[in-house]
Predict the structure.
Amino acid sequence: MAALLRGLRAGRTLRGLSSGKTGPTSRVVAAPSAVNPQCSNLNRGFHRAALRLQDESKSDKPPSSSSSSSSSSTTYHEHYQATEHDTAAEASQHDSASDPAAEQPERPNTSYQDQSGEHGEEYETEEQLQSRILTAALEFVPLHGWSMEAIAAGAETLGLSSASTGMFYNGAGDLVLHFIAHCNSQLTEILAEQHKQVQLGQAEPKKTADFLREAVETRLRMYIPYIETWPQAMSILLLPHNIPDSLKHLSSMVDDIWYYAGDRSTDVSGSSLNVRPTTSQMNWYTKRAVLTGIYNTTELVMLQDSSPDFQDTWSFLDNRIQDVVNMASSAKQVQSTGEAVVQGLMGAAVTLKNLTGLNQRR
Amino acid sequence: MSAAAHTAFCGWSQVVSPAMIRQCLKCRVPVLQQSTRAYSIFPTPLDSEEKEMLHRIVRVDHAGEYGANRIYAGQMAVLGRSKSGPLIQEMWDQEKKHLQKFNEILSENRVRPTALLPLWNIAGFALGASTALLGKEGAMACTVAVEESISEHYNSQIRALMEKDPERYTELLQVIKEFRDDEMEHHDTGLEHDAEMVPGYWLMKNVIQLGCKAAIYVSQRI
């Protein structure tokens, strides 16, 4: 936040120096060489801000250049650092994962959005600033563990003072929850992309068991860089004040996985949900509970797995999913056997009634 | 090239958005169009309050139709072979259609069904069967009581949605109104077929309606 204000002031003074354009406030003409060292630090910070914001705004950026605050704050940053530092814009296009061409349609519009963008930005920037710091702090986790030191080190790489850790009341919990949310959103992107491929007919739909296995494996592989310190992170998540949040993340991840595994019908008939009114909707809960159990146990196995590339963990996962599949099919068998038995009994009863003449009416 | 990339970006975000909505529900940023279909019953929630309200509506309506289904099943189990069998069967078929519709809405919009569904399964069947044991009049009285509370409930939902923003919820309102009319029809049918003749009609009706109100309250939340 302070960095932004400094940047704004620097921009304005530079604009006063230049004789050229009198456009909107953020259009700065001064060459980078005239910028003082503080500003270059800011440039680096804003460059990274653009990266983070582009990463995040990929998730909530509307396609059209409407004046929603997130897109305007993104474009404000993009535009600001694009005009401040030409090569930075190109570097961000190369470095960031998001669509570079999306910047171009946005850029001509920023002149209209700046005024409204600045107001909306105040609200958005604090959360985004926090997530920027936390994302930067992730690099230091192998060194400092999941702790305030890592957050302080992350804040320093962004050019902020390490005292800015004061805004994280939950400390290490914030860092772990941020990382979990980040992993979940990555997983959702991957699943959505696969789903799109299947919808477009470019890929074969997978069987449910395979889909679940791959989804859980993909998600757990995101922990591999941090596996040394992961026990510490898990214990942080088990602290009472973190439990509601961690449960929320876990349940939304499991719901997402089932959603993309096809646990609702996209066709109109609603076949899987309508057939048996007695058990169909309880499946919603049991499926999610089962997957939660599989995920948690596999995570625990992964913590003390020392095999190459965690092969033991993945075979554990395979076995668990196979168990579930077996249990589901044997449940079905029991049910159909039960039904057959009941029908047999009914038939026997009717035969008896016919034989004894009890079935006669009138 | 930039236009094509821009369109590709649009397509990407339209597919990604159903799950991304979860991520950005904290901030009050307008979310993307959830479904790529042209016709969608459920408007995309703008923020978490609206999402909560819409999910509650769908959850409790789904539970209500599910319960009504089981009540008719119970009645049919007892009275299925009697004279009023076809009548009850016809009303049951309409309820099945309602349930199917809500199943679709529930699953497409990723609404969590109420966890008490097994309870409504048993309770509904028990209510239908026990009132049917009192004869045809008992079954009809149960129908009248239940349909009356369901209609009242739908009416209050319609009022709530109309107060907020009738245009936004047009399709949803249409669905609810249509179902409410069907339920009123069942209510009138019940009255026509001597519902009031059952002994203890007043008591039975009030007890059942009280139970329905409790069920509605609980299903919205749990």
User: Anything to note?
Assistant: Residues 24-38 of chain B have pLDDT under 50 and may be disordered. Helices of chain B lie at 2-23, 48-79, 85-108, 117-133, 136-164, 170-192, 201-221.
